[in-house]
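PROTEIN DATA CARD
Card holder: Monooxygenase
Chain length: 347
Origin: Streptomyces ruber
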Amino acid sequence: MPLPSHPLRKLGFLTIGLFDGADPRPGHESTLEIIELGERLGFDSAWVRHRHLQYGISSPVAVLAAASQRTTRIELGTAVVPLGWENPLRLAEDLATVDVLSGGRLNPGVSVGPPMHYDRVKEALYPDSAGNEEFGYERVRRLLGFVRGEPATDFSGTEGFEVFSDRVEPHSPGLGRRMWYGGGSLNSARWAGEHGMNFLTSSVVKAEGPEAGPHSGGHGFAGIQLSHVREFRAHHPDGEAARVSQGLVVIPTDGATPEQRAKYEKYAAERLPRTTTPQGPARLLFAPDLVGTSAEIAEQLYAHAAFREIDEVAFALPFSFDHEDYVQILTDIATKLGPELGWRPAA
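Structure generated from the sequence above:
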């Protein structure tokens, strides 16, 4: 097995936080318990997905506010908040509040684009302005400005007994450096770099030509993802030191029961066909899920062109597993796979 060029510096995980619509509390409680477990295992970060009008976390900022009061060290992230559903000024207030409550541990990840099924939800979401809403990068730029302390109004001072600020309050000075963009295209990578964000790259990328872009290190998913990492860093003020986190689905089986191994292998096999060719009009290409012992997964990661150029990850937990499955997977990642990749748990 080839040695890594440098050890993995930060190890995180991502969960969707599924729940039963008829009884949603146990699912939310399970998510919080998984985050607490992650801290005990020494993970550097825990990330939650964002799902609107589904049976997954619809308000990750609220969930992470709760998690911030049940943990003391682990960083807490969103991967990602789709800004088409959000007012950037109000979201900036929520993010800053949770960052203050967490002691500066929040890592907000965001993305752009129209809300999913926009034609069917626009009357509920934007009844008076649906045709005029802008869902591009400008929405991110506004959020960044508010988080970083740019004026939100031309009024400040005292009015009666009330004192007003011209910027979003509370202001958390370090939060602006912990803003992430979740992107799967060269344009997104370039924009995030130019605007000084960190970059989240996941198991889904946009297939952009056979050569996968000007910085490609090869064909297929890994080559495309590598081209995005290099495009991002080529346009970021920090260059090669700019932060990139990779989010593949990994399922180590070291501590799994035979029944769990069979479930995991079936799950990966059912999802494998979508990894062979680009999917849909957007030409989305999916990475295969990595299932096996930690030694086997580490060997596959060392052979992955993009993985070789990053030093932090947020491995995604599968969507539809049970709580005990997540406990086993996280435990194996922290105690087996992480050390195989040169990572050491946080104190």
